[in-house]
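User: What would this chain look like folded?
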Amino acid sequence: MKCPTQPMFRYTWPGKNEAHACFFHAAGLKRMAAMLGFHLQFIPLSLEERVLNKCSSEVPYENDAR
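Assistant: Here's the prediction, encoded as structure tokens.
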């Protein structure tokens, strides 16, 4: 399921389409990119864009028994 948190940024992971990230997931994506040795640019969303979009990150279901 998608993260229910309002997105704060848009970004483009190499080889993927543009996506949106909440503050929490943007921090994790930035760390991941740094570990892989590249810079990932985050562009702040306008208030209207924040309302119209959702964070693109997947989160596990609360009752997921993995």
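Residues 10 and 32 are 16 Å apart (CA to CA). If you want, I can go into more detail on any region.
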